[in-house]
């Protein structure tokens, strides 16, 4: 009874601790996320859009119903504009509104779309003229930016003098100021558009609008009630603050409302302050007040930053900060440009003169195996061993943590099958993408593994291990250490900095999460129980071992590998599979080592592209399973057509610039009469094609920039085709790829020119010069915003003319279509040489702004279609076609078991879906609170985060997709024992052989060929080099597939 009471008391304390942590976590979630009030613009923008839509619906729905424009020409232009602007902005629709490239793209698209749409006639036919709103927006935007910049400069001055709180010293980003200025300007323009700038007491716009509803059917009566609500909002909720007499001090610093009279005006201009001006001033005042209060008193009280003796207190993390999958086709990623530079330097410098492998060998005595840092036999005396293999860990954080979390579990239970955690983890290279750096290793490798299983509490990550292994207190040797260990080989990406980061983090750190790192060199030999070995090769960037590695492993084989021993080779690439695929030979030293010293072959796992692999180097293979199945793999490739740009929207920078260079010399197209004159659709299409042909021929005859760009693109397109196909096929495929891009580039150049020409011929563009918008605003400004006190004149005098000039040229820069049309007309009339260079640059800049929006979705579609055709039709670009998809799913790893009989059981485990949302595991938190000093590998819940959403299973729905046994090599005298050992090899450890075979058979029937161990050995007598041989040493060469990234998951 006493024991039960003690347990209940312990559980009660634990629940209280968990409850406190939960309350603290909820409180943290409810607190504001950002340190500055500028991010409130997201909520402000949502409110502005909602109110604007309400106004537009109430005002203009009846007009749209009565005056629907049926001109197919203009609606087709609308459809073209809206369609391409949607395709351009679709990758950013789900992104958060904060200063970033995606947010910039949204404002960029909004600017160009509005600048184009307001010139089209359909808005005017519905009674909507947005020129006044646009000009007012730009004026308010300039005023808002100037006022806010002056305020922040003054506030920083007060902070510098000591009159403001310490948090005032954190300067706001200029993008946040621009964003907030744009939001409040849009709000004021929405108010002006639907409420006007007149006194509420004066009969005007609302009385005229009420009369419009009288002619509508009865079922439109709801619109009139909505109109009454809008009128109340304009006159009472957001009405003006009063007259000049109410604020005599500010009367000379305000603008006034327009005078609206139905029967004539008496008594002169109104003295009521402008409602738009008062609303703008209110927004500015709220911004200033909010900023000052948060930086002075309220923010310091509600958001304290306590400090401890050891420095600032750590905040509670409520979600893991995992990095996304690497954007391999990004045109804006500095990491990828750094990767290319590091690759060039590594190939020419490090491997040419300062090879780290040579330096490691030089620092080690050649004949000492026990303490040389290359040779480890501390696991060889165990009765059996469980160990795991994974690779390509350095891509997306969700996928890496998902696999690491499965590796860290004390056991994995799948139906009746229960597999214990491996005592050894082998990582097969490419530890961090795209290049080895402190940031990539910390965020893409160490952080997910530390979340999966924490290192000892006494371990300090910044500690450099001089003498390894650094064992816990009370453990004197590796033989006594009974906890997970990890060994890793470097991949080609780990070599991009000459192996510097790999050596610092793997060879001079002691822990990867909860896995001990005994490793001291980049390659190693591991002796396992029952005559099994693991040779970890360092193939650098050339796909081969160096001469010192060759000599070292040769000596190991001669002096340590027994007659009946078996060796597993670990390389960072499936060289034998790639040799079959490319029909070539790589890794001559490895091949020589295998052929003359190990007498063995390859065990590979291809799928889809590699489905035809069945014979290589006298070995015959039969494909049993593939993961994912061949059909699934082909279906995944469709994503290149449908999702390439969504997954790789940064490719816009490269694609848009390339397309513009191709058509740079073709602008402008002045002869478009034939395209617009023909009345039949077939005639339009024919003339459109003819115009494209003439533009192409003109480029060949007169262009320098476009021809140079085309030649470079032709060469790159041909070189981009893999060398697997013949030279003639490479040329044909490359030319077809180039032709698709060139045709698309010219087609959309012609479409853009046709749109401009139509607007010019209908007097919608190019009629009033570069400053048409400002001229319109200048004529309406005094009418709608009276200035009886001469405020504008005073500001112009004080700024020495900067005030009107700034707004004038800002409006000209905003009205890109007008600049394009006017300059185009001058070029077509007088030639390019007649214009000053500045006007020519302005023309090409304005053309590029729109052409970039139109071309970027197309270049991604063409390139994605090319990758799809190559991967599914010609089985080319298997790396490029799947890296573009950035798929985090279909992750797998191998779990091995050497039983007491020496047989090697191989289990391939896979998780089809990788969770994207994580929450703090309450079981981990409770165990952490109850036993804070307990090592993580001894806990029942070692991983900090658990999946949420549709994947709630503790084991992330992992399943065994393949299982097979490699019997231990035995001499002829022990064949009977071999058969007996094989018969008993699947017993124990909770493993049910019949259950697993039945489930694998069901998976095979359902998915066609599901699994990942790919190709099984055939034990015919003709395969002495690959199976059993009485005359040679027996070696099973298991080329372990790389798991955890886009490449390996589909092999």
Automatic annotation (TrEMBL):
Q: Which gene encodes it?
A: LOC112282431
- List the biased-composition ranges (Polar residues): 972-987
Query: Molecular function terms in GO for this entry?
Result: hydrolase activity
Species assigned in the record:
Physcomitrium patens
Q: What is the lineage of its organism?
A: Eukaryota, Viridiplantae, Streptophyta, Embryophyta, Bryophyta
| Designated name of the protein | Calcineurin-like phosphoesterase domain-containing protein
Can you give the residue ranges of the Calcineurin-like phosphoesterase domain? 389-583
One Pfam short name: Metallophos
Residue stretches of biased makeup (Basic and acidic residues): 996-1005
Entries under InterPro entries matching the protein = Calcineurin-like_PHP, Metallo-depent_PP-like
TM region positions: 74-94, 106-124, 136-161, 649-667, 704-723, 735-756, 858-876
Query: Which keywords does the record carry?
Result: Membrane, Transmembrane, Transmembrane helix
Stretches for region Disordered: 970-1024
């Amino acid at each position: 009874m006493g024991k039960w009471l003690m347990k209940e008391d312990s559980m009660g304390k634990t629940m209280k601790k968990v409850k406190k942590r939960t309350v603290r976590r909820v409180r943290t979630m409810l607190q504001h996320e950002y340190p500055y009030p500028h991010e409130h613009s997201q909520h402000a923008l949502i409110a502005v859009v909602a109110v604007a839509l309400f106004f537009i619906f109430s005002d203009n729905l009846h007009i749209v119903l009565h005056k629907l424009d049926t001109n197919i020409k203009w609606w087709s232009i609308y459809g073209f504009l809206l369609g391409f602007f949607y395709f351009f902005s679709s990758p950013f629709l789900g992104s958060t509104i904060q200063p970033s490239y995606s947010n910039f793209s949204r404002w960029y698209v909004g600017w160009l779309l509005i600048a184009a749409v307001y010139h089209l006639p359909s808005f005017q036919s519905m009674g909507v003229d947005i020129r006044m709103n646009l000009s007012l927006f730009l004026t308010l935007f300039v005023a808002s930016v100037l006022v806010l910049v002056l305020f922040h400069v003054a506030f920083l001055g007060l902070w510098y003098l000591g009159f403001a709180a310490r948090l005032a010293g954190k300067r706001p980003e200029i993008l946040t100021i621009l964003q907030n200025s744009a939001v409040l300007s849009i709000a004021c323009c929405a108010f002006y558009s639907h409420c006007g700038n007149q006194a509420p007491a004066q009969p005007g716009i609302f009385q005229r609008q009420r009369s419009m509803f009288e002619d509508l059917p009865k079922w439109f009566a709801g619109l009139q009630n909505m109109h009454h609500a809008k009128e109340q909002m304009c006159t009472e909720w957001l009405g003006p603050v009063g007259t000049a007499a109410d604020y005599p001090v500010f009367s000379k610093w305000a603008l006034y409302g327009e005078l609206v009279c139905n029967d004539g005006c008496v008594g002169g201009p109104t003295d009521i302050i402008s409602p738009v001006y008062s609303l703008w001033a209110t927004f500015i005042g709220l911004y200033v007040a909010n900023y000052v209060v948060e930086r002075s008193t309220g923010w310091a009280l509600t958001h304290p930053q306590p400090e401890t003796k050891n420095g600032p207190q750590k905040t509670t993390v409520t979600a893991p900060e995992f990095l996304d999958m690497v954007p391999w086709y990004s045109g804006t990623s500095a990491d990828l440009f750094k990767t290319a530079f590091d690759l060039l330097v590594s190939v020419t410098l490090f491997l040419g003169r300062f090879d780290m492998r040579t330096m490691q060998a030089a620092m080690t005595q050649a004949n000492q195996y026990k303490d040389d840092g290359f040779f480890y036999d501390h696991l060889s005396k165990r009765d059996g061993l469980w160990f795991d293999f994974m690779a390509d860990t350095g891509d997306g954080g969700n996928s890496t943590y998902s696999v690491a979390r499965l590796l860290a579990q004390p056991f994995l239970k799948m139906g009746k099958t229960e597999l214990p955690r491996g005592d050894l983890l082998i990582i097969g290279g490419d530890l961090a993408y795209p290049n080895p750096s402190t940031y990539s290793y910390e965020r893409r490798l160490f952080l997910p593994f530390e979340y999966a299983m924490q290192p000892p509490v006494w371990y300090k990550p910044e500690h450099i291990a001089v003498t390894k292994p650094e064992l816990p207190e009370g453990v004197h040797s590796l033989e006594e250490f009974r906890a997970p260990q990890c060994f890793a080989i470097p991949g080609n990406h780990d070599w991009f900095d000459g192996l510097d980061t790999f050596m610092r983090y793997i060879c001079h750190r002691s822990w990867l999460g909860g896995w001990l790192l005994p490793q001291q060199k980049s390659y190693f030999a591991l002796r396992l129980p029952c005559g099994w070995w693991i040779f970890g090769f360092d193939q650098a960037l050339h796909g081969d071992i160096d001469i010192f590695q060759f000599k070292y492993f040769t000596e190991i084989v001669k002096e340590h590998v027994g007659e009946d021993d078996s060796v597993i080779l670990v390389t960072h690439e499936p060289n034998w599979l790639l040799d079959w695929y490319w029909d070539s030979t790589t890794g001559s030293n490895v091949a020589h080592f295998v052929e003359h010293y190990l007498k063995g072959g390859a065990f590979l796992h291809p799928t889809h592209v590699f489905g035809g692999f069945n014979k290589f180097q006298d070995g015959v293979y039969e494909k049993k399973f593939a993961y994912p199945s061949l059909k699934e793999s082909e279906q995944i490739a469709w994503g290149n057509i449908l999702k390439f740009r969504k997954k790789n929207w940064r490719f816009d920078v490269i694609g848009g610039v390339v397309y513009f260079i191709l058509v740079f010399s073709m602008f402008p197209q002045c002869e478009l009469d034939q395209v617009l004159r023909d009345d039949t659709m077939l005639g339009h299409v024919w003339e459109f094609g003819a115009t494209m042909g003439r533009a192409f021929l003109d480029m060949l005859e007169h262009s320098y920039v476009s021809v140079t760009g085309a030649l470079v693109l032709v060469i790159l397109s041909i070189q981009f085709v893999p060398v697997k196909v013949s030279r003639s096929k490479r040329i044909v495929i490359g030319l077809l790829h180039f032709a698709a891009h060139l045709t698309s580039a010219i087609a959309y150049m012609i479409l853009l020119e046709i749109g401009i020409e139509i607007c010019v011929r209908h007097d919608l563009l190019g009629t009033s010069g570069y400053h048409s918008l400002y001229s319109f605003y200048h004529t309406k400004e005094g009418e709608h915003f009276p200035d009886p006190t001469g405020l504008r004149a005073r500001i112009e005098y004080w700024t020495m003319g900067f005030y009107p000039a700034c707004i004038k040229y800002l409006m000209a820069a905003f009205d890109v279509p007008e600049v394009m049309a006017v300059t185009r007309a001058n070029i077509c009339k007088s030639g390019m040489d007649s214009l000053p260079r500045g006007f020519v640059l302005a023309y090409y800049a304005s053309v590029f702004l729109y052409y970039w929006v139109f071309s970027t979705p197309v270049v991604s579609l063409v390139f994605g279609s090319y990758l799809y055709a190559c991967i599914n039709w010609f089985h080319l670009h298997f790396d490029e076609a799947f890296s573009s998809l950035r798929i985090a799913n279909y992750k797998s790893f191998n779990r091995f078991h050497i039983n007491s009989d020496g047989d090697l059981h191989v289990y391939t485990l896979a998780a089809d879906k990788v969770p994207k949302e994580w929450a703090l595991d309450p079981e981990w938190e409770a165990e952490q609170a109850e036993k804070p000093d307990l090592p993580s590998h001894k806990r029942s819940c070692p991983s900090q985060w658990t999946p949420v959403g549709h994947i709630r299973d503790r084991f992330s729905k992992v399943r065994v997709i393949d299982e097979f046994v490699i019997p231990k090599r035995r001499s002829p005298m022990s064949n009977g024992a071999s058969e007996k050992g094989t018969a008993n090899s699947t017993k124990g450890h909770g493993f049910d052989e019949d259950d697993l075979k039945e489930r694998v058979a069901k998976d095979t029937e359902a998915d066609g060929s599901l699994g990942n161990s790919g190709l099984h050995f055939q034990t015919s007598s003709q395969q002495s080099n690959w199976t059993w041989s009485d005359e040679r040493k027996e070696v099973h060469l298991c080329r372990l597939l790389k798991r955890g990234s886009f490449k390996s998951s589909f092999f």
